[in-house]
Amino acid sequence: MKRKILIIDDEPFLLKVLLVRLKHWGYDALGAENGPDGLVLIRQNMPDLIILDKEMPGMNGEDVVRLIRRDPALKQIPIIMISADVENIEACTKSCGIEHYLTKPCEPEDLLEMIQMQFLREKNTEIS
Amino acid sequence: MTDTNTPLTPSDASVKSDIRQQAEKKAALCPEHNICLSLKETRVLIHEQRVHQIELEIQNEELRRVQAELDATRLRYFDLYDLAPVGYVTLSETTIIIAANLAASTLLGVLRNTILGNPISKFILKDDQDTYYQFHKKLFETGEPQACELWMIQNDGSRIWVHLSATLAQNAANEPVCRLVLVDITERKRAVEALRTSKVHLQAIIESTADGILAVDNDGNVIKANSRFAELWRVPESLLKSCDDKALLAFVLEQLSDPKTFLEKVQSLYKSDVSDMDTLIFKDGRIFERYSIPMLTEGIISGRVWSFRDITERKHAQQISQALCIKENQYRELFESGSDALLLIVIGTGKIIDANRMACVLYGYERDELLTKLSTELSAEPEETTRRMQDALNQPGKVFNIPVRLHRKKDGTVFPVEINARAFLQDGETVLLVSCRDITERKRIEAEIKAEKMNSEAMFESSPIALFVIDEKTNIVRGNGRAVDMFGGSAVAALQHRPGNALGCVHSSEDPRGCGYSPNCPLCPVRNGIQGLLANGGEINGVDLPLDLIRDGMPQKVWMEIGAKFVQLEGRRHVCIAMVDITERKRMEEALRKSEERYRQVVEGTADLITVVDEKGRLTFANYIAKNVFGLDKEQCLGLFAIDFVHPDDKERTAKWFRECIDTKTEKVSFENRLVNRETGAVIDMLWTSRFNYGDDGQLKKVDSIARDVTERKRAEVALEKQNTLLTTLLNNLQIGVFMVEVPSGKPLLANQASFNLMGRGILPEAQARTFSKVYDVYKGDTNEPYPNDEMPIVVAMSGVSKYVDDMTVVRPDGTRVCLEVYGSPIKDSQGNTWASLVSFQDITARKEAAEAVIQLAKAKNKFISVVSHELRSPLATIKEATSLVLERVLGPLNDEQKEMLDIAKININRLGRLVNNVLIYQKMDAGKMLYDFLENDVNDIIQEAYRNIILATPERKDDLVINLVAKPPRIKCDKDKIFQVILNLISNGIKYSERGPIVIETRLNTHEIEFSIRDSGQGIYPEELEHVFMPFSHGRGRKTGGTGLGLAISKEIILAHNGKMWVESEPRKGSTFYFTLPL
């Protein structure tokens, strides 16, 4: 069964190339251009992983994380945060309780490695 | 009574016609008028009528006679009663006056009609009213006539002594009345009193006199002898009382040393009218003066008065009152003729009741006038007089001798008197007989003689000059205290010695016989002088002679001023010598002479003008400088007015100053003015220091002045003033505020215009070191927090330390704020003591604003960089992702050309990514936000790691890399990642800028640091570019490969953060060597 990954990024071009990349890598990829749309898709599709842009107009990445973590049904979904704000991303993920992040522009290999690591851990927890 | 008894005059016509009318009226009423009578009856009736008429006339005549008698009696009565020489008063039993005659009312001094109805007691002296009452009572009780004498008072208050005799009578109402006869006997009483007093006085005089008095009648019988007589002659009272003259004479003769002569004298004097005086000498040594005066009674010799005076003790005593006679006139004569003033004084009141002619003469009063005086009024020592009188009162009978008492004449003159006084009782009062002798002249002579003697003695003794007298043998016979001092303190030792021996003359010890025997003595001027005087008389006045005397065991030259005079004493030739040791004076004179010499040299040698002007301002002295100043020789100046040399413009001011100095009694004062040199016309500024000398009367005597030519100084002052003005102008035109305070008071000394402009205030009186912050409204930075006073540069600088601040805000009085940059500096004197604190400050409001703008700009830049780099990242990420997708052939196969183009795109995307990253890093460093992690590291490890990284990235240049490191270097505290970055960057650059050739990486250990160097053999850097190498975004001219332009800038920042140094050495076309150091 294909793993379902939801990407929320306000940059439509990046969203598009990333969706191509993830599908190329064999994942079931979904995309949303803003937080509210993203949350709707999360509830509809219950993705296995969420790739979330930190800087978005209106509801930003941190707000989305808070809403997901507040929803018991959603709070278990792992999140990878990506950001062009190299200075603040680390502090931001720590305060949100997110383990992984990537800075833009990121190498495709780094992204793949991070996704695989996430799913591997999940598998491990399932086994154990 | 008299009114009703006034007799009518019979011829009074009006009265007569009245009676006639009355008679006619009566007749008309009579009924007989209507009776008709016959002729015969009528004739009888007429006859009867006529007889009756005659009868009536005869009766009438009788009546008139009685009337006339009555009138005569009444007149007689009037004479007897009213004009009687005595007063008649009728009194009721209750003593009310019911009648009084004119004499009585005259006696009492009141009108008769006002006297009636008054009680008689109203006219009787209060003290005597009781007497009168007894008298009145007795009259009414006994009915016997009574008489008494008492004091009555007249209406005007004067007293009259009245004899009263009273008889009892009855008035018309048969009531008992008292008929009183008043006789004024005041005069009689006075006469009696006076007589009595006079007698007592004389008695007292006789008794009080110090003389013994014996009055003997022509038969030699003793008439009177006073107690003093008995006392003097020591006659027992019994003998005196026996009046046995013979016994008395025998007793008297017994005591005399020469009774025979006495007896002869007495006998010869008897019956003669000669007054005589001689001296009796007693066997017991007493000496009496005897006076003998014939006693005259109405011009006939009735006896003789002998008076004796004990003059034994009369050396100092005064002759007591003269002997007296028995009869009043004789007493008076004696009293009056006394050569001494005699006064009779009532002790209790001090009233003078009698005085003799001499007393009048002595005190300068008329006798009547004198008798109104009190004894104290005659005395110039009234208290003493009163006290003495009291003594006399306590010791009656004692004769007091007061050698000296000061009395006062009428004209106020005070003069000395010698007083003898004796108190005695007279009529219940103690009376003092005082005999006074004017001893003015005696006193004066006594005083003069005494003073003269005293003066001479005192002069001789107290003279500061040694005085001594030498006799013919030139021995000292007398010397005063000073002379004795000079002789070595012993009068005994000096007397009967020659002066040389006494004075301790050196030459006197040269011969055992002493003074006068030495071979030197013939030359002795003292000896020769004395001998000359002894031989020829005369005197020698003050000669200064040096004597060789032994003083304190040492021969010394002693200067003596010697004067000598020949004197004849007790018939012998003497010389009186006066000697003054003037050694000290000589020494002083010498010193003075030297001092004067010095003074003269000072005066003449000084460069200052020295002048003396008199009280009018005329020059009385000037030193030689006068020539330079006044243009006249110093002698020419004398007598000229100093003011005439003063510059015309200063004349008034100088004259005023001179006057003020005198008016205020100024003594020392300085003054400046200008003088004009008469020779050259030059104007000279002079500074005078003058001393005004005043005499005891406060008048100016002279003015001593020292004046200095201060023209040069004045010039310098003017120059200084100019400079000062320049500085002041400069200071006030300076746009920097300057404010200076005194240390340690903190009192503001100076504030320039700019400081006023900046602070909006100048020097405020309340400004003090502790209050600057408050007084000038100073705040810290932009806050409203008052600037801590102790941190203010002006306060800090007061302690000698400079301080700079730029965070001071002053709120001006108008409310505007100004930011100030303030430098505080201590101002020190040559000893390094801070005496003032100075602050200079300027408005940095604009600069602060500019700095703020810069900060804002930097912030904006950072924000911009941040935003730009972030905004670049997102599209960069998209391009990169898209490119990667194509290159990975995810979207289908690529031909070689397509792949090559996309590879180029990918390289540049990566480069852009690095650029964005470096921009962010540099911006972070620039903002000081880069965090370092200093830990101990082995630098060789870091280099090796970089080397490995480079080889991985550029394996083709592996062989060119040469590493030459210090073995086992000390571990260094550094941020490993950052240093790694620097090394990596430098090696990359070396590779980048050299196509081939070695890249040498070396380390070197210096004393305090490790030096790293990375040398390439590339194109090198042109000298003009060397300084820009480490600037951001600068690239070498021959750049080939794209760098960010930030690598070296970032590297240098990192090294500087490690307190290291970084530099480059380069030669174009030969290569560059980059160095950096890290401290150990």
Describe this structure as you would to a colleague:
The complex is a heterodimer of chains A (128) and B (1080). Chain A is α/β, with parallel strands linked by helices and 128 residues long. Chain A has one domain (4-127): Rossmann fold (3-Layer(aba) Sandwich). Chain A has five helices and five strands; from the N terminus they run E-H-E-H-E-H-E-H-E-H. Chain A has helices at residues 12-24, 35-45, 61-70, 89-96, 108-127; strands at 4-8, 28-32, 49-53, 79-83, 100-103. Chain A has a five-stranded parallel beta sheet with strand order 2-1-3-4-5, sandwiched between helices. In chain A, helix 2 (35-45) packs parallel to helix 3. The mean pLDDT of chain A is 88. Chain B is of the alpha+beta class. Chain B has seven domains: 13-78, no CATH class; 86-184, PAS domain (Beta-Lactamase), CATH 3.30.450.20; 211-319, PAS domain (Beta-Lactamase, 2-Layer Sandwich), CATH 3.30.450; 463-587, PAS domain (Beta-Lactamase, 2-Layer Sandwich); 606-715, 2-Layer Sandwich (Beta-Lactamase), CATH 3.30.450; 734-843, Beta-Lactamase (2-Layer Sandwich), CATH 3.30.450.20; 931-1079, Histidine kinase-like ATPase, C-terminal domain (Heat Shock Protein 90, 2-Layer Sandwich), CATH 3.30.565. Chain B is 41% helix and 27% strand. Chain B is built from 34 helices and 38 strands. In chain B, strand 1 and strand 2 form a beta hairpin. In chain B, helix 30 (896-926) runs parallel beside helix 34. The radius of gyration of chain B is 75 Å and the shape is elongated. The termini of chain B are far apart. The model of chain B is unreliable at 1-10 and 315-327 (pLDDT under 50). Chains A and B meet through helix 1 of A and helix 29 and helix 30 of B.
Question: Helices, strands, pairings?
Answer:
The complex is a heterodimer of chains A (128) and B (1080).
Chain A: E1 4-8, H1 12-24, E2 28-32, H2 35-45, E3 49-53, H3 61-70, E4 79-83, H4 89-96, E5 100-103, H5 108-127
Chain B: H1 13-29, H2 39-82, E1 87-91, E2 97-100, H3 102-108, H4 112-115, H5 126-142, E3 146-153, E4 159-170, E5 176-184, H6 186-208, E6 212-217, E7 222-225, H7 227-233, H8 237-242, H9 245-255, H10 259-269, E8 276-281, E9 287-297, E10 300-310, H11 328-337, E11 341-346, E12 352-355, H12 357-363, H13 367-370, H14 375-378, H15 382-394, E13 399-408, E14 414-426, E15 429-438, H16 440-462, E16 466-470, E17 476-479, H17 481-486, H18 491-494, H19 499-503, H20 525-536, E18 539-551, E19 554-569, E20 572-581, H21 583-605, E21 609-614, E22 619-622, H22 626-629, H23 634-637, H24 648-663, E23 668-676, E24 683-694, E25 700-709, H25 711-733, E26 737-742, E27 748-751, H26 753-759, H27 772-775, E28 778-780, H28 793-798, E29 803-811, E30 817-828, E31 834-843, H29 845-887, H30 896-926, E32 935-937, H31 939-953, E33 961-964, E34 972-974, H32 976-993, E35 999-1005, E36 1009-1015, H33 1023-1026, H34 1047-1057, E37 1062-1067, E38 1071-1079
Parallel strand pairs in B: 33-35
Antiparallel strand pairs in B: 1-2, 1-5, 3-4, 4-5, 6-7, 6-10, 8-9, 9-10, 11-12, 11-15, 13-14, 14-15, 16-17, 16-20, 18-19, 19-20, 21-22, 21-25, 23-24, 24-25, 26-27, 26-31, 28-29, 29-30, 30-31, 32-34, 35-36, 36-38, 37-38
Helix pairs in contact in B: 6-11, 9-10, 29-30, 30-34, 31-32, 32-34
